[in-house]
Amino acid sequence: MLKKNNKFNVITRSHILILLSIVLTGCDSKDPATQQQPQYDIGYTTIEPQNIELKDEMPGRTVASYQSEVRPQVGGIILEQLFSEGSLIKKGQPLYQIDPAPFKLNLKSAESDLRKTKANLTTARNKANRYARLVKEQAVSRQDYDDATSVYQQAQSDVASAEAAVANSKIDLNYTRVTSPIAGRVGRSTVTAGALVTANQTDPLVTVQTYDPMYVDLTASSGELLQFRRDLASGAYSRNEGELSDITLTLEDGSLYDRKGKILFSDININQTTGSFVLRLSFPNPDRILLPGMFIRASLPRGIVHGALLVPAKALTRTPKGAAQLHVIGDKDIVELRTVTTETLINNQWLITKGLQAGEKVIVEGIQFVRPKSPVTKSHEITDTPPEE
């Protein structure tokens, strides 16, 4: 039994060797061309410098250009509300009528006091004039003349005080009709007829807001402000001051506001808690599309970059640590893996600030088929520009 098994093993090994030799011979007999790696058509774009306009997208909220919290300047009972809530009103338009009866009485009393002081003034003036003649004739003493002159001057002061009281009473009477200090849209009234109000109370009777123009407050960091000034001073880009009056606005629903605005001012102080400052814009709003408190995004022109290098976004790859890389066709069509610095994405193209030169060829299509330091044997240039967003 043992001899038979050995014989079987020898036969099996010989058969395996024969089969292997047949397979190897068959592989050697194939056409060498079939053993070459397939060649893929690689698409590239030649980077050309161009001038582009950079814009900053900043979030913000709309603010009424004017807002007035209307409060009474005299106390009394509200007799009537003279406006419709939510309506547009003019500057000086009456809003409330406070009971004027007590103020009319005060005015009459002040006018009566004025007449009395004027009568006293006439008497004092005549006496002073008469004593002035008599003192020259030594018919009265100098002391009597001085006393008469003093009384006359006191009467003049009383008349002036009474005239001021009359004017003040007239002002208080006018204040019984509460008017709007600005033009705009009036809000919800906090009081009704019959309510008791006091002068300069804490709670406003109603709020009036002006919607045209509408202000937009943006918040930017102090770091962004410093970087912007450094770039502008270094000549990284240039800016025309006229662009500051050509600002676009995107509304909450993503639609573009059909009117352009301008920059009014930037806050002179930096918020110590957040390290940010406020930038205020102004937009015309004749159709009242913008309302206070709306969340918007403003597109502000930063400046024009001269000789900017843009590459399609799909040509850019990133390392696990986030570094940006490009595959560039270098000398002798050898692929180079280049680390670059990106700044911003513009119309589906990355702005490259470091690591790339004008005229270089950047691989856009077929990146998965190339390897660094490997040759590119088949390629074509892509000239189509990406569509604008």
UniProtKB/TrEMBL annotation:
Pfam families hit by this protein: Beta-barrel_RND (PF25944), BSH_RND (PF25917), HH_MFP_RND (PF25876), RND-MFP_C (PF25967)
GO MF term set: transmembrane transporter activity
GO CC annotation, single: plasma membrane
Residue span(s) of domain Multidrug resistance protein MdtA-like alpha-helical hairpin: 107-176
Subcellular location: Cell inner membrane
Stretches assigned to the Multidrug resistance protein MdtA-like C-terminal permuted SH3 domain: 308-368
Coiled-coil stretches: 107-165
Residue span, Multidrug resistance protein MdtA-like barrel-sandwich hybrid domain: 68-209
GO biological process, one term: response to antibiotic
Membrane topology annotation: Lipid-anchor
Domain named Multidrug resistance protein MdtA-like beta-barrel: residues: 213-300
Keywords: Coiled coil
Annotated family: Belongs to the membrane fusion protein (MFP) (TC 8.A.1) family.
Protein's recorded name: Acriflavin resistance protein A
